[in-house]
Write a structure and sequence with these properties.
With 301 residues, this protein is mainly β. It folds into 2 domains: 149 residues, no CATH class; 131 residues, 3-Layer(aba) Sandwich (Protein Transport Mog1p, Chain A). It contains 6 helices and 20 strands. Strands 1, 2, 3, 4, 5, 6, 7, 8, 9 and 10 form a 10-stranded mixed beta sheet that branches.
Length: 301
């Protein structure tokens, strides 16, 4: 299980700087399904011995992202018994600053998956107030995780937990949408869900089954049966080679406790639909922003 932060992977403090995004892995992958009695933590939670599995030290893997952002992963490195005991001896003492950890990466992280899992790494203490930081990956196929700068949206959209920044998320068929800060992400039954306690958005793809139909006519078909709201509660806008349309309802309109927002973005032969709910009427602006973020890279290969 991954613990969502935006807090420090070492001390747990909330991070005010959005240029550093921390995620922490609770356990090595090999220990996820084991009973608690098989897990033995030493002087600090970052040192772990697992019955029948091995010894582990939690380290930081810092990955450079675009937008001047750093992703810092508090992940596990499998080590031998001697390394674990030495770390236990030094951890809360002055000698901790000289600690070097060499072992193999023990968490599978997307988008790198099996490439990084099991790769041999070296970690050293860069800051005595933090976990040891991975400084080298001794595996040709995995070393580029440290050396290159990754597209922030491509990487962070793989993390389903709340993020302190907006992330553009691929929906398929070249469509994408903005997942705003603070929302979890999930996918079920063909729909992307973005959720927080006070708001939610659900987005799905639609394909026109009438070849060659104009986007405006496709929109008309999609909106058949939709409520005829007041002009102040609907919007119609151009979208490249297509159109956008949205309408919204208040609790007074439908008798339900939350505000509701329905939006479409329609292109030639394809469309995305979005349904948002929110508690505060002022969050209509948020729903409209997410709706307007629906976009299709028509020139993508």
């Amino acid at each position: 299980m991954i613990t969502h932060l935006p807090t420090c992977a070492c001390c747990g403090d909330v991070l005010a700087d959005e240029r550093r995004i921390d995620f922490g892995f609770n356990l090595p992958d090999a220990a996820r399904d084991l009973p608690e009695e098989a897990l033995h933590r030493l002087a600090v939670p970052a040192l772990l011995r697992v019955d029948g599995v091995g010894c582990f030290i939690r380290c930081l893997l810092a990955v450079k992202l675009t937008h001047d952002t750093e992703l810092v992963l508090g992940a596990w490195v499998e080590v031998d018994e001697a390394t674990l005991l030495r770390a236990d001896e030094l951890w809360q003492r002055p000698g901790y600053a000289e600690l070097t950890v060499r072992g193999t990466f023990a968490n599978r992280i997307q988008p790198w998956g099996d490439t990084l899992m099991g790769a041999e790494v070296t970690a050293k203490v860069a800051d005595p107030e933090e976990l040891p930081r991975v400084v080298d990956v001794h595996h040709p196929a995995a070393a580029h995780v440290l050396t290159r700068t990754w597209d922030r949206d491509h990487v962070l959209s793989r993390f389903p937990f709340p993020l302190p920044v907006d992330v553009r998320t691929d929906l398929g068929d070249h469509w994408s949408v903005l997942r705003t800060a603070g929302l979890t992400a999930s996918f079920a039954d063909g729909t992307d869900h973005f959720t927080a306690p006070d708001r939610s958005a659900a987005v799905n793809l639609l394909t026109d089954d009438v070849p060659g139909r104009a986007p405006r006519d496709f929109l008309t078909a999609l909106m058949a049966g939709a409520p005829d709201t007041r002009p102040a509660q609907r919007a119609y806008e151009p979208l490249g080679g297509g159109v956008r349309y949205a309408f919204w309802l208040t609790p007074q309109d439908h008798g339900r406790p939350r505000h509701e927002f329905y939006g479409m973005a329609v292109g030639p032969g394809t469309a995305t639909g979005i349904f948002c709910t929110y508690e505060d009427a002022a969050d209509l602006e948020w729903a409209q922003r997410v709706w307007r973020s629906l976009d299709r890279a028509v020139n993508s290969a």
